[in-house]
Amino acid sequence: MIFTIFKKELIDTLRDKRTMRTMLLIPLLVFPIILTISVNVSSSFEKKASEEKITLGVWGDLSGKYIKQLKQIPKGLGEMVPRSFEDSTKLKQAIENGEIQLGLIIPKNEENLLRNKVSIPLTWLFDASEIGRQERAESYMNVISDNAESIRLKELGVDADKLHPLVPVYENCASDKKMIGQLAGGILPYIFIAFGFIGCMYPAIDLFTGEKERGTIETLLTTPVSRWQILVGKMLVIVTSGMLAASCALIGLFVSIEFLDIVKNQEILNIVHGILTPMFILSMFSLLLPLVVFFAGVMIPIAVYAKSFKEAQSIITPLNFVMVLPAMIGFFPGIELNAMTAAIPVVNIVLATKELISGTLSFGYYAISLGVMLILATLSVFVSYKQFGKESRILN
Fold first, then answer.
1. What is the pTM of this model?
2. Of 170, 179, 212, 339, which is the most buried if we count CB atoms within 10 A?
């Protein structure tokens, strides 16, 4: 009987174009669209910033050696046109007004400082809100600094290798898989949780509040079927919708990486392929399933209580932010899965997924996280059953 109800409600849900868009189409397209746009826009801005022809405002000697050195820099660092300023205040104003892109202040006593072998402060002015300006200033400064250091060492008769007795060598011992887990581990569960919630929302409202609006809930309750069987059948449809939405988000991510040529590094592609194994997907969905059941258990009492589709939507939609907000914990550095965080709902799923991607998930913490979500899912189902069993809620 539960399966019969499930099949009937699932068919009705699949006929709803709004639910299908939310459950399948949007999750499938969101990753390819977002990743393609973000990668292309980012690459475009970086390329534009590196190739941009800029005007360098100079307060000091425009015919000095520093400007000559900058005119000889490789074209790969970007073309530069110098412009003289007699006042440093006007130089700053020109940058603020967008007339020039970079400014360089050369001390008036530069020659005296050079003769006395004293460090010469070169002040670079730029608008940090503009992409690539600081990087351009740093690259120019590196050219000037390297030349000045080479000349100074030659004058002093010092071998550059002998000047640095210690050379630091930093080596990252973390595996590439762990690094990807730290970078992408916070984003993936956030997306899956968000789509899991959205995938549950419209079917939950339609199967309860929608039936009340259409006047078909009374007919359904008069059938010789236990109320808990009706509830379970409807809840299975809601959970299926949520899991389908999360699955489509995962498929969209895989399609983006595999077929849209977004990831250029073959080594990273091999690591991603190594992560997306059947065991990984099974473990991830085992964590996501009780969370989606919990979402369904929270939404059903609201959908039963609401008198109209609009009222139910206005209550459940803000709840989305409350449920998804803890998922942002995954973006914060330094927060790891331990006995305490494994007991915090939603946060435990994010951190466990992060560890799962990194390949460092402890079975004990996995069990705690799964156990906590199973308990919450059970409680939410019990609350839904109690609310669905009240005639005053159903027939209001």
1. 0.67
2. 212
How far is CA 215 from each of CA 52, 321, 368, 395, rounded to the nearest angstrom? 65, 31, 43, 9
Domain annotation for the chain: domains and CATH numbers: 2-35+176-394 (no CATH), 52-161 (3.40.190.10)
Asked if 205 and 313 count as a contact pair (C-beta separation under 8 A), the reply is: yes
Question: pLDDT tens digits, residue range 142-175?
Answer: 888 888 888 877 877 777 777 777 777 877 676 6
* Contacts of 72 by beta carbon, 8 Å cutoff, 6+ apart: none
pLDDT at 97: 86
Burial of 147 (0-12, 13-18, 19+ CB in 10 A): middle
pLDDT over 60 (residue 263): no
pLDDT tens-digit series, residues 69-102: 777 776 656 677 888 888 888 888 888 888 888 8
